[in-house]
Amino acid sequence: MGIYAAEISANQALGRLIERHPGLHCHARLTNWRDVAGLVLSRAVDLGIAEISVSQDIEDLQVELVGEHALILFCRRGHPLLGRKKVSKAALDQYPLTLIRIPPRIAKRFPGKGKIDPDTGDMIPSLEVDELSTARAAILESDAFGTMTPLQIEPWLRSGEFEILPYKAPWLRLEYGFIYLRQRLLTPATQAYMQLVRDIEKEKIKHNRALMKQWFPRQT
């Protein structure tokens, strides 16, 4: 599992799977999205769910988009950039970005302090993390900012600990999905799990869209 997919639907789907099939044995691995395709190709795992853009052109892999969600930029209460009607990329580039590495499809457009990996084309944030709880904790204690879906930080937004930066772009989206070997027969348990993820994603897409309309009423 990639980090975003795990938080939004993949973990919840595991819970529903073992509730329905308590005798089933599963092993879930949370890892950098960059590593998921390699684990699938090596047959270390039956199924991956992560960013799919770098896996689409690998001949031996089959991919299926299941999660597509608008993202927001967020920061702590009292951040210097809050209070503006709009925040530019140039202004955001003056502050640390706290996040996992960003795929090439959006890397060069992404605001914040970081650098482009010459080997992969990924953007490496100034504070690169391996899971999102670390990012949230660091952002609460600094002028760094990050990006998540509103549904991932809704409790902190409601409490006022986090606030949304007034920056929005159509490309600022998650795109993750299933990754598996094209010639490998998926087990019934794997297929059942995939359907649970699809069902949960329908719920999450609806919820995230409602939150985006709430916080960006004139732009959605």
What does this structure look like?
The chain has 220 residues and is α+β, with helices and mostly antiparallel strands. The protein folds into two domains: 3-69 and 173-215, D-Maltodextrin-Binding Protein, domain 2 (3-Layer(aba) Sandwich); 72-164, Periplasmic binding protein-like II (D-Maltodextrin-Binding Protein, domain 2). Helices cover 35% and strands 20% of the residues. The chain has seven helices and ten strands. The protein has helices spanning 3-20, 33-41, 89-92, 104-107, 132-140, 154-159, 188-215; strands at 48-51, 61-70, 72-76, 98-99, 114-116, 123-125, 127-128, 146-148, 162-164, 173-181. The strands form four sheets. A three-stranded antiparallel sheet has the order 1-10-2, sandwiched between helices. A hairpin with a 6-residue loop joins β5 (114-116) and β6. α1 packs across α7. It is globular and about 55 Å long. The two termini are 29 Å apart.
Quick structural summary:
This protein has 220 residues and is an alpha+beta fold. The protein has helices at residues 3-20, 33-41, 89-92, 104-107, 132-140, 154-159, 188-215; strands at residues 48-51, 61-70, 72-76, 98-99, 114-116, 123-125, 127-128, 146-148, 162-164, 173-181.
